[in-house]
Amino acid sequence: MPNTGSRPHAVIVTGGASGIGLATIERLLASGWRVAAFDRDQTAIAKLRNMHGDKVRADVLDVTDEQAVEATVKSVATAFGRLDGVVNSAGIGIDIHVLDTSVSQFRNVLDINVTGTFIVGRAAARIMKDQGAGAIVNIASIAGLRGFKGRAAYGASKGAVAILTQVMAVDLARYGIRVNAVAPGPIDTPLVQAMHPAAVRRAVLHYTPMRRYAAPDEVATAILFLLDSTQSSFITGAILPVDGGFIGAGLMELETDSPEKA
Ligand SMILES: NC(=O)c1ccc[n+]([C@@H]2O[C@H](COP(=O)([O-])OP(=O)(O)OC[C@H]3O[C@@H](n4cnc5c(N)ncnc54)[C@H](O)[C@@H]3O)[C@@H](O)[C@H]2O)c1
Asked: How far is the CA of 86 from the centre of ligand 1 (A)?
């Protein structure tokens, strides 16, 4: 268990009521962290409270609401006595051809995925600066590192999250704050179930060497590694693919090819 003197580490997870955020909370709890979870989905937050009782401080929060985020992050740090980590998992996705993407759709995706990540990360970093330590983990995407069909807004937002991560890592290193991101490939979550109809799933599997979708917990373990300064003390500005080999892949066998034919 990570320790700060006698107190276990304290962490904020946004988008914590579903998918990767929820899996991360479960991993963090199992590893002895104190967790505050936020999500804009009121029903899902109520479910989270039912699941974990007072083991998690769970509340409704929209990451694009600057004033609410500033106040919430401060109050969590006060209640926990410190703030060691932040996981920015709140996000939305759309799959719309660039010619059909409206400006308001584009702005909305960037507002939540990029501006929200910035607002939460900056609020946390101001507190971590005074402590002289902290770790921020953002969620980028393989769709922010390569051109995916229909991802004009989503891909642009995740590319921005990757570079935001690197800039924050540079600006905050002097305060002992590490900033990293995971870039998940296909992960079976409600977001992906909505965005990946059967034809997309087939295409994703075709380009993913490990030929499967991952469980959210497989991303959560990578997030924990980047959060935990006992494990990743010299890692900052990294964009870690958790993608079954997608980003590293070049020429691949066709699914029907046997190794002998290659
Ligand atoms: N699932 C994947 O394959 C995959 C791949 C790459 C990246 N990601 C990223 O991982 C992150 C988590 O996605 P997921 O797949 O777990 O999706 P999810 O839909 O299961 O969870 C996302 C959560 O974020 C919350 N949220 C959305 N907008 C918010 C806002 N403005 N304020 C607060 N909460 C908000 C939602 O209510 C939801 O509970 C996202 O940033 C997503 O883009 C997911």
From this structure: 15
**pLDDT 10s digits, 74-101:** 999 999 999 999 999 999 999 999 999 9
The whole model's pTM is what?
Answer: 0.96
Give me the torsion for CA of 178, 179, 183, 184, rounded to 10°.
70
Within 6 Å (CB) of ligand 1, which residues are found?
Answer: 14-15, 17-21, 39-41, 44, 62-64, 89-93, 112, 116, 139, 141, 184, 186-187, 189-192
CA 18 to ligand 1 centroid distance, Å = 7
In angstroms, the CA 160 to CA 143 distance is 11
Distance from the alpha carbon of residue 251 to the mean position of ligand 1, in angstroms: 31
Residues in Cβ contact with 236 at an 8 Å cutoff, skipping those fewer than 6 apart: 169, 173, 178, 179, 180
Phi/psi of residue 177, nearest 5 degrees: -105, 125
SS (H, E, C) 107-130: HHHHHHHHHHHHHHHHHHHHHHHH
Domain definitions of the chain by residue range: 3-242
Q: Which CATH number fits domain 3-242: 3.30.43.10, 3.40.50.720, 3.40.50.300, 3.40.50.150?
A: 3.40.50.720
Mean of the per-residue pLDDT values of the chain: 94
Position 254 pLDDT exceeds 90 = no
How confident is the model over 136-153, as pLDDT tens digits? 999 999 999 999 999 999
| Ligand 1 atom closest to Cα of residue 154 | 43
Can you say how many angstroms the Cα of residue 8 is from the centroid of all Cα atoms in its chain? 22
Summarised one tens digit per residue, pLDDT across range 179-228 is: 999 999 999 999 998 889 999 999 999 999 999 999 999 999 999 999 99
In the prediction, which pLDDT does 164 show? 99
